[in-house]
Na+/H+ antiporter subunit E (Corallococcus exercitus), 165 residues
Amino acid sequence: MSLRTLVHMLALALLYALMVGSFHPVDLALGAVLALGVMRLFPLAGLPPVLGAREHWRRTLHLPRFGWALAVLVTRSCFQVLRVIFGRGDLADRAGVVDVPMGERTARGVQVSSWAMSLAPGTVLLELDWERRVMRMHALDASDPDRLLRQLDDFYQRYQRAVFP
């Protein structure tokens, strides 16, 4: 096991311990086992992209903008879900499945897009189809799939692409 893998495993184990609120050795051991499982299931998450120093700094400078845009997306999505829950009855009948093209996204870009989709209330990733290069998602409001696709592509082009292409 490399030092990098060990550091990632320990960081994830500590994160698990913080989430469960216990630093008991059994919880830390369970966190370490779960961390290794996560690292095996998602191997790209632990690999740093090969970047030059200039590209690394450019992406780092765009990261706060991406974080802010993600926070705004999640907040807006929360209000949209509240409208569906407490609004008119016909809003609840608009749910559906939408295929989102991966487009020019790298594997890491697809991971981040999928994570952002699932993080925002009202949408969740169902499946990644690498052969067709589509991310299949469920949306509470799929009444206008083209509008939803435009919103997702706009978020990618304006905020995510500069950090996680």
In short: The chain has two domains: 3-41, 54-160. The two ends are 29 Å apart (CA to CA). The helical segments are 3-20, 25-41, 53-86, 107-119, 145-160. Residues 3-41 form one domain.
